Amino acid sequence: MSDNTNFKTLVGVIIQAEVDGNPRHELVLELGETPAYIIQSAGFTQLDLVMKARNIGKMFFDHGMKKGVIERLPEILAKPKAVYKSASPQVKDASVIMTYETHNGFPIIVALHPGKMVGRRIVNEVASMYFKEGPNPEIKWRSAGLLLWEA
What we know:
Layout: H1 4-19, E1 28-33, H2 36-42, E2 48-52, H3 53-62, H4 67-71, H5 73-78, E3 82-85, E4 95-103, E5 106-118, E6 121-131, H6 138-143, E7 147-150
Parallel strand pairs: 2-6
Antiparallel strand pairs: 1-2, 3-4, 3-7, 4-5, 5-6
Helix pairs in contact: 1-3
């Protein structure tokens, strides 16, 4: 995973730029290599793991994720609870990382997309991070056979 200090700084810059009315959606944040547990469980190719600045704005402004949680994303991805195949038919081959983190009692999940073209290269992308309201989805996902890996 990337140097967390740089990542934290960039998250702050990106959020402040949107607040100031000057979004920096063209930026791509590097998270380093895709963690081995994702490659082994979800079948991702070993590519760089990245995140578009636009998605940080979406997490913060649309999904209500706290800045401090977004800043800790590299640490959160380093210690996951489980990996599930995405239940969304719109996103082929996507996976969902169930974290140990919660927001108002709801589990926080991270959506990952494999082999995406970002700029001029193919990468694995952190597409979103949000809290899953309602009943804990793990029971439903397990019964649907979506569990790929568990800590």
